[in-house]
Amino acid sequence: MMFIACACIAQQRELDSLLQILESHQQNDSTKLKALLDISFDYSSIDPDKGLEKAEEAILLAKKLNDQQRLASAINYKGVNFEAKSLEDSAITYYNRALDIRKKTGDNTGVAKILHNIGIVYFNLSDYTKALDFQQQSLAIFENNNYNRGIAGDLNSIGVIFLTIADYPRSLDSYLKALRIYEKGNDGMSIAMVSSNIGIIYNHLSDYNKALKYHFEALKIYKESGNKNGEQQALGNIGNCYDDLNQPKKALGYYQQGLAIAEEQGFKMGIANSLSNMGTVYNKLRDYKNASTHLNQAIDIYKKLGNESGLASAYNQLGNTYRNATFLAGAPNKSDRYQKAISYFDQSLQSAIKTGTLDTQGESWQQLSETYKDKKDFERALNAYKNYIIIRDSIFNDQRKQDITRLEIQHEYNKKEALLKSEADKKQALAATEIRRHRLVKNIIALGAGIILFAAAIVFIFYKRKRDAQQQQKEAEFKAQVTDTEIKALRSQMNPHFIFNSLNSINDYISKNDLKSADTYLVKFAKIMRLILENSEKKEVRLSDDLQALELYMQLESLRLNNKFTYNIKISDAIDVENTLIPPLLLQPFVENSIWHGISGKQGNGKILIRIEKENEMIKCTIEDDGIGRIKSGILKEEKNNNEKSFGMKITHARIEIINKIKKSNAGVELSDLADGTKVELKLPLELSF
């Protein structure tokens, strides 16, 4: 799946026009120098070798004319062409030379542009820390100069960096800021580019409806502007979404549209990518003849373009075709097919090694192992499988450690940010009240020194202002109470013990080499952390989203307790889970009590039943467990002795009181003991999103 760091699409017609100008203008002056610069830049996306030639000519002419500004541009464009040839060291060398000239001439905007380019080089080198540092340096200069287009470009590149390291919230934040700037400037191509990037984020998050919304917006802009290259890429992104949605026929339709445009415009890479995608889809549809045809065509083009990454993917898919097909030309029997498949997996492996693509290498080794096993060549199957395990473990160890570290960092960052916001809100509310009180006293003193004739008016004004101040103070105190309760609720939902125990469970699985369980647990843990952080920013969420987070929590706790309990969620037909709104994670503390105070101490397994029903104009949520009950668990005794409820229950009651004050409702919670276990009934006002 593709994302775009910058939109530099050279149009062949513009280049032809510039070449004509250069040919007709023989005089060595600024006109010729400008043409050389423009040609060098345009060649960077078509023929970087020619781009380097024109950049060198521009450097010599700029020195002859003693034009320092354009000399810096020529050296910069030489770096751009080296970057296009994937010669990153040379690109950085020339960018730094251009940077020195920009700094000496005091061209801050030019400095920022080169810093942006250096950041992209480090991104291509996978040094994301340096890439982010250079983009942020560039952004600071652009913001100081109020250069909006540069600001948006840096924000887009920063979004790409965060997307690459799977920090989707920060990536989305950067993209949306860039999008707002481009929308204010009515920059259609840039709006389409950023929309595509946002769509790719939502595709990673499996929110395919939002992903398709942004991809279709980009497609519309590209169509209206006549940008065929962008249109073809947007169609490919839409096809990827439908492929991920397991709708291969629909995906195939969009790939075919993209292929038609690429062939019409002569976009070789677009043709190869479309053919490769179509071959992959035909494999899923078990149409191996068409899969073979399209993948072989893609391979021919990738070879001419020297695209090893594309070759690795296409060879791997072609090997998969021969392994699974019942008959293909050139492979009349099973033995021939297996041998063909092995040769393609070997070629895929070699291309993947050249590009350093670990996931494709792992997939090729795995396919080789399975094919050798089908051939009854168990020794080679075992050797291939060992290589697959080595690659898989390498990917797993590096990525999973980074994922766990990033989760811990994000958790601490968001927790501190939430606490600081709470304290700031409290101080601001109290300060505002204090300022109003001082103003009131000053007004009273001033009025008291006035004429007695206006005493009645003074008394009236004093009374009214005092009443208003008291009312405002009450409102400020209530807002502070709401903020404080929300922060405490967030703390209870992101229970440090739960996070610590979850990370320990993941570590335990890894130490036991149970990588499948570790992976399953980590995916669920990451999802629930993301849902908690996203939902904590909202007053109300969809019932479906809240139940998803609750179900993830129960799945994780069930795994930690070795599947000691099962659960069932029953939703009345009268409840529309997609349009019903409730405060986020209000049910979680009650489920937590059921698990740890009810079922964990029980001999044998337990059950949790959750029912969601409509009762008059209220939504009734019932949680029942068949655990040991409150008396045996000591909850009632503890509450009686301490004269207080558990932290989670106390916060939940506080949240319900706030709901009743704001909505003037009669929400409440009732706990009762069952013959075996405990029952909780939570009633909330029924709120719909429409």
Structural class, please?
Answer: alpha+beta
Major sheet: 5 strands, mixed
Low-confidence sequence ranges: 1-13, 404-409, 480-485, 487-494, 639-645
Q: Summarize model confidence as the mean pLDDT.
A: 81
Count every beta strand, where a strand is a DSSP E run of 2 or more residues.
Answer: 8
Physical arrangement of strands within the biggest beta sheet:
2-4-5-7-6
Q: Name the helicity range.
A: over 70%
Shape: globular
Write the layout of secondary structure elements.
Elements lengths: L11 H13 L5 H14 L4 H18 L2 H17 L3 H18 L2 H17 L3 H17 L3 H17 L3 H17 L3 H17 L3 H18 L2 H17 L3 H18 L2 H17 L3 H18 L2 H17 L9 H22 L2 H17 L3 H71 L6 H39 L2 H16 L3 H22 L4 E2 H18 L4 E7 L8 E3 L5 H12 L6 E10 L2 E8 L3 H5 L1 H8 L4 H17 L4 E7 L2 E9 L1 E2 L2
Parallel strand pairs: 2-4
Antiparallel strand pairs: 1-3, 3-8, 4-5, 5-7, 6-7
Helix pairs in contact: 1-2, 2-3, 2-4, 3-4, 4-5, 5-6, 6-7, 6-8, 7-8, 8-9, 9-10, 10-11, 10-12, 11-12, 12-13, 12-14, 13-14, 14-15, 14-16, 15-16, 16-17, 16-18, 17-18, 18-19, 19-20, 19-22, 20-27, 21-22, 22-23, 23-24
Description:
This protein has 690 residues and is α+β, with helices and mostly antiparallel strands. Among the domains are: 15-106, Serine Threonine Protein Phosphatase 5, Tetratricopeptide repeat (Alpha Horseshoe); 107-185, Serine Threonine Protein Phosphatase 5, Tetratricopeptide repeat (Alpha Horseshoe); 396-537, no CATH class; 565-688, Histidine kinase-like ATPase, C-terminal domain (Heat Shock Protein 90), CATH 3.30.565. 75% of the residues lie in helices and 7% in strands. It has 27 helices and 8 strands. The strands form 2 sheets. Strands 2-4-5-7-6 form a 5-stranded mixed sheet. A hairpin with a 2-residue loop joins β6 (668-674) and β7. α12 (228-244) runs parallel beside α14. It is globular, with a radius of gyration of 32 Å. Mean pLDDT is 81; it is low at 1-13, 404-409, 480-485, 487-494 and 639-645.
